[in-house]
Prior knowledge:
Elements: H1 2-13, H2 15-49, E1 55-59, H3 63-70, E2 81-82, H4 83-90, E3 95-107, E4 110-115, E5 127-130, E6 138-141, H5 143-149, E7 156-161, E8 170-181, E9 192-195, H6 196-211, H7 216-225, E10 235-236, E11 238-243, H8 247-259, E12 262-265, H9 267-310, H10 312-320, H11 325-362, H12 376-397, H13 399-402, H14 406-413
Parallel strand pairs: 4-9, 6-8
Antiparallel strand pairs: 1-11, 1-12, 2-10, 3-4, 3-7, 3-11, 5-8, 6-9, 7-8
Helix pairs in contact: 1-11, 2-9, 2-11, 2-12, 3-9, 9-12, 10-14, 11-12
Amino acid sequence: xxxxxxxxxxxxxxxxxxxxxxxxxxxxxxxxxxxxxxxxxxxxxxxxxxxxxxxxxxxxxxxxxxxxxxxxxxxxxxxxxxxxxxxxxxxxxxxxxxxxxxxxxxxxxxxxxxxxxxxxxxxxxxxxxxxxxxxxxxxxxxxxxxxxxxxxxxxxxxxxxxxxxxxxxxxxxxxxxxxxxxxxxxxxxxxxxxxxxxxxxxxxxxxxxxxxxxxxxxxxxxxxxxxxxxxxxxxxxxxxxxxxxxxxxxxxxxxxxxxxxxxxxxxxxxxxxxxxxxxxxxxxxxxxxxxxxxxxxxxxxxxxxxxxxxxxxxxxxxxxxxxxxxxxxxxxxxxxxxxxxxxxxxxxxxxxxxxxxxxxxxxxxxxxxxxxxxxxxxxxxxxxxxxxxxxxxxxxxxxxxxxxxxxxxxxxxx
Length: 414
């Protein structure tokens, strides 16, 4: 215990060095942990949230935006496509399953997705309680939605137009919760799922109310266009497709892009392309993090070495009172380890809290689900690397202690 107290006293006696060492070391650890979390989060998105989705079909525009909006639900939709045209794609012999989705509304920041019951099979999601959607204006909610919004079976709520929590246009139709999904650690945990008819019905009534003061002939024409008896003019946001065989990857996307007014995007290809764009920046940050780490280690070494040289008389005096070389080495080692522990705690806390705070300030809480919790093993590995570097630093800093000539130091001091 006395050695610990001495180490703490030494750190307090040089606050500027101590703060600088802790700051630089925690910054390097934060960057290293942050980069690792980005990589793991990306790998998780590709491995889990793509599910069985091989192809996304939607409106013409950016293929990456189509994938981000329809698969990961991290962006706004490009536009809509005709449901009848999308259904023709589902009849292609190369298509195994085709799941339509339609969205544009939310409840307290959580997206409402109109689709079919096949949507849950894309993510291997199962009901924890309740039942599937059988009627219009019924919804199934993900586990995160249920937990965060305190919703239960039988609860009702009003959806809002748009995809942000700040929208003020509220629909008049009440949606009823009929089922709650088991946690999957996938994007579906953050979604509210209903039938396509619910989305069409809500917006059909909304359009009727907007047009009720227009001329009679125009009103009749508009109602025929949104007739719920058929799907001739119904629209969806996109179609999520899985293939029967690998040959479809080569033929179907090109055929859709060239022969229709729709766009076909391959999720894995688009996300890997995005990662390749980002990898240069990630690698640059990694290099900077390691440079900061090496500078931190060198700064700690200089600080410890300087302390040993400047306090050689005190250390020699401790030896005369019975302290061993090993105890003096322990004192130096504890100084380094205390700095590492404080920097480690700061780095992890900032990583855990920082992302949530940033998203809250930006008003984008719904995007937090793209990040996954960094496994403890990953955190431990980086911590072990830093501890090893500090131990090597201490071994270099204690050379004057090992070579210490007690009588010479005490005589010179006198």
